[in-house]
Amino acid sequence: MILKQTAMKLALVCTVALVSLSGFAQGVITTPRVPSPAATVSQTVGISSVTVSYSRPSVKGRDIWGALVPYGWNKQGFGTNLDAPWRAGANENTVITFSHPAKVEGHEVPAGSYGLFFVINKDNTGEVILSRDYKSWGSFWYDPKSDLLRSNITIREIPLTEMLTFDFINQTKNSTELVLNWEKKQFPVKIEFDVDNIVMANAAEELKNTTGFTWQGYASAADYAMQNKTNLEQGMKWADQAVAQNKSFATLSVKAGLLNEMGNTAEGDKVMKEAVSMANEQELNLYGYNLLGNNQADKAIEIFILNTQKHPTSANCWDSLGEGYAKKGDKKNAIANFKKALSMNPPPNVKANSEKYLKQLGAM
Question: Which residues contact 181 (CB under 8 A, 6 or more apart)?
Answer without folding.
Answer: 158, 161, 164, 165, 166, 167
